[in-house]
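testing teh design pipeline on a random one, pls ignore if ur not involved
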């Protein structure tokens, strides 16, 4: 079994070496073309001419199109790779990093500006690559022959950062990083990356295995540390994988004690910060719910108060109407008037009949009102006067007994009156005034009689 696995690994490595050497050996024109393309696209990107930069860069990073698609399906191994796959490592990393940065800038334009520069459909297609993570598959397929373990660590770090910025879910990002970390640490005899051009390949090379942790050089170590940092401190916390992140950092062979302790402290601080944010959000939601409840209660109390006031107002209006109706019935004698008998059929004109009915009604009403109280007898009226005089005398006697000065004032008034009447001129003045008063009273009575008669 082990012999079969070793043979398979050697076969894959030799096949990869031969294909890589065949792709690199034709000429140096491809490398120089890629370098020139990178410089031109970089200048366009720096001047914010994003559509032109993407247009210049796409022919290098995409697979060439063939007219005979059926032949490609029958012979998939004959399909030509993208030009970027034949470039050196430095050129390959620069081109892919520029493409990822360009894609990030395109997404940051937004729908309105993106529609102006790229068109609505084109911008949505480019933005979807960053949001759903399909750009990762494009990079692996077009730049590294579909082999995840051969992707450069710097490119992996930029891809992970792009998905962290724009992907709503970090599940795909976590899966891709785990696949890379698992496959890039395996032993392999693929030494195709050791050769920059065909002129550097000699016939007596000795293949050397890569380290199990994928850190052959200090630069590889820094790149892998960056990938581990993104995975442990950014992607896993976004997916709420706190325990797994701590376990991964504790068991990592790449991290030394100092970095391991620093990563664990950072994880703990991030977890505490997340907990504080969650508590703050919960308090904010609770306060908002309480505020809404208070507003609801206030509105309900106001509504009940308005309904109560409306009901009281209606009751007052109803009582006023009933009071007015009772007053009108008392004033016009509606309650005392009985049913009116039907008039007899006589040939009387309509106008005369109406006037007679009104006159009859008024006479009938006056009779009814007059018949309410029969006139008092002479005896009752005499007794009423005697009782009134008796009450007057009693009140006078009581007031005199309470205050004797009243009697003195009365006597003084009578004496003064008698003295005044004893004088002749006073008697004549009183007689003249009385006569004038009687004459005016007679005239008033006469005028009233004439008016009543008219």
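output:
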């Amino acid at each position: 079994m082990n012999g079969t696995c070793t043979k398979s690994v050697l076969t894959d490595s030799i096949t990869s070496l031969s294909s890589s050497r065949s792709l690199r050996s034709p000429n140096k024109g491809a490398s120089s073309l890629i370098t020139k393309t990178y410089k031109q696209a970089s200048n366009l990107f720096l001047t914010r001419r994003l559509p032109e930069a993407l247009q210049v860069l796409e022919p290098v990073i995409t697979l060439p199109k063939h007219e005979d698609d059926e032949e490609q399906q029958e012979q998939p191994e004959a399909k030509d790779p993208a030009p970027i796959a034949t470039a050196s490592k430095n050129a390959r990393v620069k081109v892919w990093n520029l493409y990822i940065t360009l894609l990030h800038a395109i997404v940051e334009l937004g729908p309105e500006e993106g529609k102006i520069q790229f068109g609505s459909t084109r911008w949505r297609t480019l933005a979807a690559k960053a949001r759903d993570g399909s750009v990762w598959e494009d990079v692996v397929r077009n730049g590294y022959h579909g082999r995840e373990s051969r992707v450069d660590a710097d490119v992996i770090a930029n891809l992970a950062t792009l998905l962290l910025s724009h992907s709503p879910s970090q599940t795909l990002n976590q899966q891709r990083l785990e696949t890379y970390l698992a496959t890039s640490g395996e032993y392999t005899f693929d030494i195709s990356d050791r050769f920059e051009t065909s002129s550097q390949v000699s016939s007596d090379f000795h293949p050397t295995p890569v380290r199990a942790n994928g850190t052959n050089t200090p630069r590889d170590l820094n790149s892998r540390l960056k990938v581990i940092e993104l995975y442990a401190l950014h992607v896993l916390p976004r997916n709420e994988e706190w325990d797994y992140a701590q376990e991964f950092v504790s068991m990592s062979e790449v991290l030394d004690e100092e970095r391991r302790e620093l990563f664990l402290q950072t994880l703990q601080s991030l977890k505490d910060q997340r907990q504080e944010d969650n508590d703050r959000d919960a308090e904010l939601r609770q306060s908002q719910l309480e505020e809404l409840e208070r507003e609801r209660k206030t509105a309900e109390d106001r509504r009940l108060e308005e309904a109560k006031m409306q009901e009281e107002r209606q009751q007052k209006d109803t009582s006023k109407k009933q009071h007015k109706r009772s007053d009108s019935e008392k004033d016009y004698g509606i309650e005392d008037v009985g049913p009116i008998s039907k008039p007899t059929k006589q040939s009387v004109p309509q106008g005369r009949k109406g006037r007679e009915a009104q006159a009859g009604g008024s006479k009938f009403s006056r009779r009814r009102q007059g018949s309410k109280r029969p006139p008092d007898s002479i005896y009752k009226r005499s007794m009423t006067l005697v009782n009134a005089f008796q009450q007057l005398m009693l009140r006078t006697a009581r007031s005199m007994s309470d205050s004797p000065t009243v009697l003195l004032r009365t006597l003084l008034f009578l004496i003064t009156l008698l003295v005044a009447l004893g004088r002749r001129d006073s008697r004549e003045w009183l007689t003249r005034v009385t006569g004038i008063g009687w004459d005016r009273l007679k005239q008033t009575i006469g005028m009233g009689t004439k008016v009543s008669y008219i």
